[in-house]
Amino acid sequence: QVQLVESGGGLVQPGGSLRLSCAASGTSISIYDMGWYRQAPGKQREPVASFHTGSSGSTTTYVDSVKGRFTISRDNAVNTVYLQMDSLKPEDTAVYYCNTWPVLLYSWGQGTQVTVSS
Questions:
Q1: Which residue, 106, 101, 110, 97, is CA-closest to 26?
Q2: Is residue 116 a contact partner of residue 86, using CB atoms and an 8 Å limit?
Q3: What is the three-state SS of 59-91?
Q4: Rounded percentage of the chain residues whose pLDDT exceeds 90
């Protein structure tokens, strides 16, 4: 059974940083493109960042609202995907999830809450 466990969220002031982790078990993330998603209160879940590994190397994509502030990475040795979030804004407040990209192959984990507030 595949499990995705997100962690690293918390309460941070505007301009602060957090590093989220997504640990996978029951599968190897190295064979998939992986992504981070978020769901803000009262809104639909949206994609935030993706990590793609192809024959020519790795590429990343970001939604416009986080470009230059968020960085997605992965460590296949520990089967974990990360999201480094810098210069956080109140509008980044949401529950953050990871999953395969762009096709969602697995059930959502519990997510990790990120709250940006002064």
A1: 106
A2: no
A3: EEEECHHHCCCEEEEEEHHHCEEEEEECCCCHH
A4: 86
- Name the β-bridge partners of 99: 35
Q: Is the peptide bond before 102 cis (omega within 30 degrees of 0)?
A: yes
Q: How far is CA 4 from CA 24, 41, 83, 88, in A?
A: 5, 22, 14, 24
Please count the CA atoms within 13 angstroms of the CA of 62 that sit on its side-chain side.
Answer: 13
- How much is the mean pLDDT over the chain? 95
Q: Which residues, in sequence order, are bridge partners of residue 19?
A: 84
Residue 116 sits at the vertex; the CA angle it makes with 94 and 87, to the nearest 5 degrees, is 105
Give the confidence band of 56 by pLDDT, cuts at 50, 70, 90: confident
What's the mean pLDDT in 38-63? 93
* Distance, C-alpha 98 to centroid of its chain: 5
Residue with tokens 């970001």: 62
More confident residue, 65 or 30: 65
